[in-house]
Design a protein that fits this description.
Elements: H1 29-42, E1 51-58, H2 64-81, E2 87-95, E3 99-106, H3 109-117, H4 128-141, E4 146-151, H5 158-170, E5 175-180, H6 184-197, E6 200-204, H7 209-234, H8 238-246
Parallel strand pairs: 1-2, 1-4, 4-5, 5-6
Antiparallel strand pairs: 2-3
């Protein structure tokens, strides 16, 4: 799979050489109106804008038994959004020793399936923090409507993950965390990340294709059509209703 390892990126702060801050100017009503209009035009949440979804996966060895199922079900995310509008997906996965990679933005389900088929699971620790950092970077750079994460464990410092989640929450990028299995530490972290971002946490049983399929379809519907699309889907599927019940 193509893509470079995701590296942590720090925020830079510029300052004048003499340390003085520029003198503030009071904004006029015209200035504010122009700013709001520009922001709405650029926003990925604007009506008619193309939906962008980050699809993140834990590809460590514990996920091997259900990896093929996840690869097959991702196609349903595209099919669900066909009637709602276009959707681009950026695949992010981690595995092995400090390996975390991301694809480019993909709008073709066959291409995404091909990329995923080339990934095999490898032993290693979780790297959820890198996933959240990548989501924040993309949200600022090009706009992201939602993040989906599928995993079964959490082996990082929960406070550090929550700080990154809080930043995504400020950017109004919900994270939908779909937990495989019953690990209590993972559940605590996933629930808190969901709360801080305005997203949702849901559990699915290992090998339960129908459960995961519904959850992925619901997340894709939100990314493509926003809350209105998710509400519409919630009238027919339990997965969408589960997400709606938790979202702020």
């Amino acid at each position: 799979m193509s893509g470079e390892p995701i590296k942590p990126r720090g925020d830079s702060v510029s300052a004048q050489a003499d340390g003085a801050l520029p003198q503030a100017r009071t904004s006029t009503s015209e200035d504010i109106a122009a700013f709001v209009a520009k922001a709405r035009a650029l926003s990925p949440h604007a009506p008619g804008a193309k939906g962008r979804l980050i699809f993140a996966l834990d590809a460590t060895m514990s996920r091997q038994p259900t990896w093929d199922m996840a690869c097959a079900l991702q196609a349903d995310m595209f099919r669900e959004t066909a009637a709602l509008g276009s959707l681009d997906i950026r695949l992010v996965y981690y595995r092995g020793f400090n390996e975390c990679r991301a694809s480019g933005w993909i709008s073709d389900s066959a291409k995404l399936a091909t990329l995923m088929s080339k990934i095999d699971c490898r032993g290693g620790d979780t790297q959820i923090g890198k996933v959240l950092s990548e989501a924040r970077r993309e949200a600022v750079a090009s706009g992201v409507r939602a993040v989906v994460f599928v995993g079964d464990a959490m082996e990082e410092k929960i406070d550090e993950l929550c700080a990154k989640a809080g930043e995504l929450g400020m950017l109004k990028v919900p994270v939908f965390l779909f937990q495989e299995g019953h690990d209590a530490v993972a559940e605590q972290a996933f629930r808190e990340i969901a709360r801080l971002t305005g997203g949702a946490w849901c559990r699915f049983d290992p090998g339960a294709a129908a459960q995961l399929r519904e959850l992925l379809r619901a997340a894709a519907a939100y990314a493509a059509g926003g809350r209105e699309a998710l509400l519409k889907l919630a009238t027919t599927t339990s997965g969408a209703a589960m997400l709606i019940s938790q979202m702020k």
